[in-house]
Amino acid sequence: MHCPDCESRLIDYASHELPEQERAAVAGHLATCSGCALEYCRLQADLEGIVEAHAEAPRADVYRQLRQEVAREFGPSRWERARALLLRPVPMYGAVLASLVPVVLWVLTVARSSPVFVEPERAPATPPSATLTDYDATEPPPGHRGVL
Amino acid sequence: MSDRRSADEDLLQATRNGDLRAFDVLYVRYERRLYGYIRRMVADRDLAEDLLQDVLLTVIRDRSYDPARGRFAAWLFTVARNRCLAQRRHDAVREDDRARTPPRLSTSPESQLARAQQVRTAMAGLTESQQQLLLLKQVGELTYRELAQIHGVAEGTIKSRLHAATRAFRQRLAETGEG
Q: Residue B54, class by beta-carbon neighbours within 10 Å (0-12 exposed, 13-18 middle, 19+ buried)?
């Protein structure tokens, strides 16, 4: 492909409108011809400039209002939402936890109804020291007591 | 339905089925391009925002759209174009000079960039049909075939018109840059 042939196809090439065979030929020429490659880059920049100069976002209110309108018109009703919640598949860990609830309740019930185990009093480690229980220091010794 | 690569048509169907996440994806995908296009067609910002809502609700409500007959983007911009032209006609009846007045340039920070100003100035120098073609091709990303369907002409005609519009735009852009 020669430069004039390439240049006449650059707009279609940039627009992705060339048949595959022609597209490959133009790409091959651009890879070897710096003049056409530069022209293509300029064309691309100019065309992208159109997009950049005209891309503009609306205010956030627009999105909010539009979303509300779509939700009101197309969103599911309360009944449909509740139904979907009920029909929602239960994950496996949820099923396992749910099946464990009766077991836990049974264990708690059994533990409460069984007699309480009381630990017996343990003997002291050291024997008690000998003590006098019938001794009164205010009384005279037995030898001085009256016989009668 | 949060996949960026989901087809527009699937997102549209999901939105109709009440999936608001699909609507979010669709909105983000077209928000700037569609609003930018409408903004170019009508001067008033509030009116452009009303039209944006109107166009999006129309395409979501209208179940006559058949994906087999064309891409969603082409249909969306066709609806936007028709709605904007109708608005222009309506405005022209009320204010005769409105249709001839070029739309005001945006005052957003982006528009203050010199390059964007040059592009807009160059675009303003083109004929109305040339501007339409370039905007629908570049901003709307429509194909030659889709443009031909919208304008009701042959694909070859669109191709030659688009080539002429592109050459004219680039020439004016070069002149604006030099000036």
A: middle
The C-alpha angle A10, A14, A18, rounded to 5 degrees, equals: 75
Interface of A with B in 62-101 (CB under 8 A): 62-63, 65-67, 69-71, 73-76, 80
Describe the crossing of helices B72-94 and B8-16 by its angle, rounded to 10 degrees: 70
Pairwise CA distance, residues A27 & A6, whole Å = 9
Task: Pull the structure tokens for residue A70.
Answer: 């779509």
Interchain contact A52–B (C-beta under 8 A): yes
Instruction: Supply the pTM of this predicted model.
Output: 0.65
The model's pLDDT over A115-138, given as tens digits with 9 standing for 90+, comes to: 665 566 666 667 667 776 777 777
Which residue's entry shows tokens 């209002």?
A65
ipTM of predicted assembly, 2 dp: 0.72
Helices (H), B95-154: 114-124, 128-134, 144-151
Residues in chain B: 179
Q: Which of A56, A67, A5, A11 is nearest to A33 (CA)?
A: A5
